[in-house]
Amino acid sequence: MEESLEDLEALRLFDVIEDDGFGRPLLLVMGCRLDTWVMEMNRVLMLFVRLMHDVSRAPYSVVYFNSNVGWRNQPGFAFFASNYGVLPARYKKNVEHLSIVHPGMWVRSMFLLLRPILSAKFWSKLHYADRLDELWLDDVIQKDVFRA
C-alpha cells in the first residue's frame, strides 16, 4: 500500500507546469516551504520521486526558488550526498536545466561540496539567477510560463 503524502502535497513544495515554453515539463521547487526541522525528509524524497516518475520520462527543466530560505529550510549535505546516488539515472540524464533563483551561500556551497559526485555534464545544466527575469533573458524558460 502506498503511503499518503497529502499533507506534503498540500504545502506545494513542488509544482509541475506542463510546458516551460520550450515543450518540456517544468518542476518548480519552493525552498521556503520546506521545514527540515519538522518534516520527515524521507517522505519529502518519496513525494519528489513520485512526481519525477512521470516528469523525467523526457527532457525537463527545474527551477528551485531559494527566496526567503533560512536554516530551517535547508537539508544538510548528508541528505543530498546519500540520496543523489539512489535516484534513477534518467532523472539526471533528462534534466535540461536546473536553475536556482536567488542562490545564497548555502546553495553554492552545497554544490561545491557535491562536486565529486556530480558529473561534468551537470555543470553545463546549472544556472544561477539573481533575478527572476534572468530565466527568460538567458532562454532557460519562456516569460509567459509564470502568467498562468
TrEMBL record:
InterPro entries: CRAL-TRIO_dom (IPR001251), CRAL-TRIO_dom_sf (IPR036865). It comes from Erythrolobus madagascarensis. Transmembrane segments: none annotated. It comes from the Eukaryota. Residues 4-148 form the CRAL-TRIO domain. This is CRAL-TRIO domain-containing protein. It holds the Pfam family CRAL_TRIO_2.
